[in-house]
Backbone:
């Protein structure tokens, strides 16, 4: 297996996947609409086919042109996308679909593949683009993969939790890095022990390749950092690798409400712990990057970029009001 087709491949997970494949001697072709800058435009090792993955004819043309051994689907956001893909790539050695930890429909610790129940998905949700339908849509894509495998198609899926690292256009982690780099005191909602499993992007990329090489058709594989850190620990880790000192100040619902804030106004806060079991993936030979090193690379990337996470900013003035309230207690 050495010829890969990456559907997507230019933004975040797909970009790091292409780099991982190149590092492991794959011939790589990316297939996308060309709506985003192509970081591999000057790299002769990466071929590019322009087309819309929702156009079945374009997808078939890409397959006939590349004749891939492995297909990595980074931009299948609706179940119908997965249906088209598995019907197109019926004879490849591996089709790997990016699902999500959000596909799980029950709160369990940890969430295990084949044990924790997946979200249901209505016909309306399957066609939706809403944030609320994201988990159900990803779960239905998993079910398409399972059904395809029952027909002899070598399809499998990967379920990342919150993905972070260099080139993250969501800027979720960048909000917290920006706070650490620019303020002496960082406000963290709750008591700081909030736990939302995260996955370093380079580890997600290597996991996709390993699943294609070693995984079993019809199986799903969770991926996430093998060492979890709480929200408070994450902020402290950012400060440590950035070489700065910050005071982490925690605030409960009552203190936050005094400034018209709530815990969910802070990105990466989740009331109930979200933890994925990664033992099944590790059994294939996958290893995660130490979280300290992953965070160091993330902070370096942040400093070199213009990302600041402003989209997620609950308002520094409101935070300062909370900090003042806490100082008087």
Residues:
């Amino acid at each position: 297996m050495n010829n890969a087709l990456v559907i997507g491949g230019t933004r975040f997970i797909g970009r790091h996947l292409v780099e991982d494949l190149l590092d492991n001697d794959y011939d790589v072709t990316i297939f996308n609409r060309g709506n985003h800058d192509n970081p591999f435009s000057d790299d002769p090792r990466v071929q590019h086919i322009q087309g819309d993955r929702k156009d079945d004819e374009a997808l078939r043309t890409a397959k006939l042109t590349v004749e891939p051994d492995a297909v990595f689907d980074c931009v299948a956001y609706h179940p119908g996308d997965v249906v088209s893909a598995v019907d197109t790539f019926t004879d490849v050695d591996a089709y790997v679909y990016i699902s999500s930890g959000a596909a799980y429909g029950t709160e369990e610790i940890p969430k295990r593949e084949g044990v924790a129940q997946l979200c249901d998905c209505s016909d309306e949700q399957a066609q939706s683009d809403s944030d609320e339908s994201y988990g159900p849509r990803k779960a239905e894509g998993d079910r398409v993969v399972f059904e395809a495998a029952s027909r002899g198609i070598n399809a499998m899926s990967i379920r990342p939790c919150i993905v972070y690292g260099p080139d993250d256009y969501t800027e979720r982690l960048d909000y917290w890095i920006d706070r650490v780099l620019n303020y002496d005191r960082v406000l963290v909602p709750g008591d700081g022990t909030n736990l939302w499993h995260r996955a370093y992007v380079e580890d997600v990329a290597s996991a996709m390749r390993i699943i294609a090489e070693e995984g079993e058709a019809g199986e799903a594989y969770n991926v996430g950092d093998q060492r979890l850190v709480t929200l408070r620990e994450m902020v402290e880790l950012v400060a440590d690798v950035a070489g700065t000192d910050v005071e982490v100040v925690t605030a409960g619902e009552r203190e936050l409400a005094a400034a018209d804030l709530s815990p969910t106004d802070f990105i990466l806060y989740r009331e109930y712990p979200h933890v994925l079991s990664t033992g099944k993936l590790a059994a294939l030979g996958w290893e995660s990057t130490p979280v300290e090193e992953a965070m160091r690379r993330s902070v370096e990337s942040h400093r070199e970029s213009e990302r600041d996470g402003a989209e997620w900013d609950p308002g520094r003035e409101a935070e300062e009001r909370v900090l003042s309230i806490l100082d008087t207690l």
Observations:
- Residues 11 and 167 are 7 Å apart (CA to CA).
- The first helix runs from residue 13 to 23.
- DSSP finds twelve helices and eleven strands in the chain.
- The mean pLDDT is 97.
